[in-house]
Specification:
The protein starts with a helix and ends in a 15-residue tail after the last strand. The chain is elongated and about 130 Å long. Helix content is 39%, strand content 20%. The chain is α+β, with helices and mostly antiparallel strands and 517 residues long. Strands 2-3-7-4-6-5 form a six-stranded mixed beta barrel. A five-stranded mixed β-sheet has the order 12-16-15-14-13, with no helix packed on it.
Amino acid sequence: MKPSHDRAFRALQNGMVCAASLLVPADQRPEWRREWKAELWHVRHSLCECGALSWHAQREVTAFCLGSLQDALCLRRETRPAPQPAPQLSGAAGQCLLRLCTLVAVCVVIARLLPGVQAERDPARFQVNPGVILIQTSASTERFAPAISPALFRDWKNTRQRYFDEFAFYRTMRETASVTARRATRWSVTHASTNLFSLLGLQLPFDPAPAGDHRGLPAVVISHDSWRRDFAFDPEVAGRVIRVGNRAARIAGVMPYGMWRLPEEPDAWLLEPDGQLVGDASVAARGYLIARLSPQGRAAMDGECISIAVRRDSGKLVGIPFPAEDDDDENLELYGVSFANRLQGPWRIYQFALLLALLALPAVTSVTLGESNYSSHRPSRTRTVIRWVFLLAKFVLVAAIAYFASLDLAWWNSSNYSPLAEFAQLVWAFTICLFGFRWALADQRQRCPVCLRRVTHPAQVGLASRTFLGWNGTEMVCMGGHTLLHVPSLPTSWFSGQRWLYLDTSWEFLFADSGAW
């Protein structure tokens, strides 16, 4: 081999060894480098023939130099310091609160994404003019049925009433609606007085009863579900002319999601003049009568329901908010029912469920946190306050989870008022609050009163056959060396519940590396 080639190989092999030495820790690098250069010299002289290296020998020397890289990596791994164990966060109070806050955040985000929940939380949904009642033949505030004839509405409308200021009437029936020239569908259509929405005081984002266009078409308000299902959320739907039954109507707007809280769940509201509404109705086509009480009527109404006697006065029907005193066949007794139960909103339902859960909590779990056996390592007053604040924080977060989760589960797909959805919210809120509070107390009983870490390493102590002679149960220890928790296997008169044993500072050295705080 030529001398120039030999010098090139020597430079390459020395460079490989020097490069590998950079991986060796600095304090061992000089010795490692001297050792490898000595071995490299020995390999070169053992393969030298006649003062020069052949091509085959140069390949063997180069392969030997590649081994320096593996040796440097191995030495680096062996001399690397062992990583210090991270503090154990399992069972920490901060971790518990973080998980609860995460659940609250998830429930809030879901509530903001569901239109039914957003509509139920809208305050405008529960704003109805004061003194507005529903007149029917039943005193029930939960069950409603169309029982008022159009003739009664016409007579009351045309007669001066002492106890009522204004009336509105509506009835619902199934009709064919032609939303386009080529498409027809079946709708539940509510034929209503033109003053229905103004009497109720609904704050709609449009005028529900305009004077009409040049063709005199009646106005129709479509529901949010119909707008989604039949018009694909068309923003230009207002002003479109459709056919409802055998007449044309102009769409005035879309009912806001969840605004309608009266009986029936219509797909559209067709607003008609009183003469046309009553004239087209047969005797059997009964509906619902909405009335607004005068100041005298509101003074006479005590509670959510009032009895109304309908008497003939000079051939006209007059409503009197008092029960009839005789059994005259010509008297028709009706009832005025308030909308208060439909306007209470989810917050009042949740408050009632929360109160029920707090009252039922002592029946499903113990509300005590265990007895204490103090030693010289008595916890400070600050630690005691922190312990109670932690328990209160868990109760508050569980209550927040119950509120938003019950809304998500009950109102996620409800576009109108639903007694079933209200009942579902009550059940879900009560269940989550009750068992959530039960978990909070059980979790608190398993946490050290000093560091609020969950006690671990349960050990069985004593014998079951000696329950009345010595203590028998489970013993758990705080990893911070603060307390021991004794839980009896069989409660007795002298050891009825769990007990905390506070340890002195001599125990702390056993748990120095536990990461407790």
